[in-house]
Amino acid sequence: MGLFSRFRRRSPHDHERDGETGFFPLYESQRGFSADDDFAPSATPRFSPDYNKWDQRLSSLDSEVERERRRRLPWWRPSKYRGRRKRWWAVRVFVAAILLFFAIVAWLAITAPLSKSLEPIAAPQITLLASDGTPIARSGAMVDAPVEVGRLPPHVVEAFLAIEDRRFYSHWGVDPRGIARAIWTGRGGGSTITQQLAKFTFLTPEQTLTRKAREALIAFWLETWLTKDEILERYLSNAYFGDNQYGLRAASMHYFYRKPENLLPQQAAMLAGLLQAPSRYNPAKHYDRAKRRMDLVVGAMVAEGYLTEAEAAALPAPRLDVRTRDDLPTGTYFADWALPIAREGVEASYSRQAFTTTLDAGLQGLAGRVTSRAALGGAQVALVAMRPTGEVVAMVGGKDYASSPFNRATQAKRQPGSTFKLFVYLAALEAGWEPEDTIANTPIEKGSYRPKNSRDNYSPTITLEDALATSSNVAAVRLFDEVGSENVIRTARSLGVTSPLPEGDPSLALGTSSMTLLELTSAYAGVAANSFPVRAYAFPKAEESWWDWILTPEDNISSRAHSDLEQMLRAVINRGTGRAATLPVANYGKTGTSQNNRDALFVGYAGDLVVGVWVGNDDNSPLDGVTGGGLPARIWKDFMRGALSLPEPRPSASPDPEGPIQPFDVEDGATIPLDDNGSSISFDDDGITISTEIEGMPLDFRLDDNGLAVESAEPDR
């Protein structure tokens, strides 16, 4: 209270007691007036208070209070910076930009892979070889070893500098004068060699301001960490020169059959002119354009003092020396599948590489001939041949790769039809069923899903072997329900099927889920080898170590179930829907036809080959009378006969009437092939059955005690 008592108005008694004349204390003074003072109340006042000074002090105090209040505000509050002067903002923005720039450069120095500028910008050329060393395909860019600036003639380097970056050795990655010249003249992009190296090494070719800013930043970074010669070497070793040629060494060898160290001035000038538009100035296709562009480069060299007028005028037009190379396809169905696998294990380098594949050149040629002569009409075809280990030896993905490179063996997912029944019957055998066990073969009249047998061929019961051989749909669905969808799916998964398989869907038994032909054939290979899962591969595998053998899980079928399954698959060919695939050796397989005849398949094995064949339309439209037991089975048989070097069937010679009579004993139930179209004859105790196919319709001619009868054999579904 002592502070405020000084401003309290005192009473006269207080004045007398204090011995002072009464007054009101102000800021200027804390003492009373005396009679001697000039401005005492009793005297004439000659001084007035300095109110302006008071205002200034009060304003200063208010400013200090406001600054203190702002200082205590959090940094993210806008009011903390309100009222700042433009100069204050300009200084801080400039400093922040400088700090941000150096921070980004430092971040690039730590995180950006500088070694990437040493790698080729295009995948190097890879040549695929068949198992016998025969080249089958070549893909990738033509690249060669990097060049060294110190070993190049001066006129080679000068040609590129004159047309691409005249001030290369004097700027810091970005050339403001070059940019200004490009804007003023309207010619050129103003990009330096360093910027171009940054663009095709680290960035995409998009034309945006953001990309240009990043390009300039990376160019500055490259200039910081590399010497000028190193930048130029990496640029010349990666630039595109047209005709699939990347790098100066590959281009000089391609166009002039000369090493870059031996290039003549006119040759170097022509190569330097290609960089602006390699396809447009390609001398192998547009020599006149390339020559005009070369003259422009020579003029730039004269302007920079690299050549005199007389030397430039004396330069002749360079003569091309494009050497012919072995013409190999850049892609085939097999190569398109194998190349990505090959590149996975290839480190980026400038060297061309060759890989030996599992493809058998002879079997591949046979597959091409067999599929090309098949009566496909407008339909497409696919064929995969592999060893039981998964080694793919032949692949056809369509009728004509040139017109359609889409691989229907590895890319198309189609319904497998009744070939999927393999998993249903195998699951049943592993659950304890036997081929002689019976199951109802009557129409299914309950439930939401009611499949039908082809041509309404039913019977009270049917054995599992006959059900698979004749491809009974109702029997397969009933067996699927008995075994359980989870067991069928587990069996398919164990054999290597990875495609989606809906659990609890009875139509799965008839192959309504989609998968690739390669995947399906690999599953059958697991049955053939009785070791699964089998993974298809295109390159020879390294010998497996004992440790890998322990860690690699493999499964197999019990010997009883495997024997029963092969007995049933053999019955499909001997007396079932696969009679058209009959061979004079033991063979096993299954036909498949999807709903409405959209897909027709035959997958089987004989000897050491597992082969899958698919026929269908790309638009998934129905086939005209083609079933799995028809055209696909005949293609399979045609390929297998040539692949296994089986003799063509020939009519036996007439017996010598004077010679001894030879017995002609035929085992009951045995089937004898009659021709290449699947016709066969079988004998039993009651008579003879001749099975054939007429205009796509399978027929059985039965001769017994009741006479001759003609029956329509049930086609596979």
UniProtKB/TrEMBL annotation:
Segments traversing the membrane: 89-110
The entry's keywords: Membrane, Transferase, Transmembrane, Transmembrane helix
Pathway it works in: Cell wall biogenesis; peptidoglycan biosynthesis
Biased composition, class Pro residues, residue ranges: 648-660
Compositional bias ranges of the Basic residues kind: 1-12
Signal peptide range: none
Keyword Transferase in annotation: yes
Pfam families: Transgly (PF00912), Transpeptidase (PF00905)
Protein name: Transglycosylase domain-containing protein
Origin organism lineage: Bacteria, Pseudomonadati, Pseudomonadota, Alphaproteobacteria, Sphingomonadales
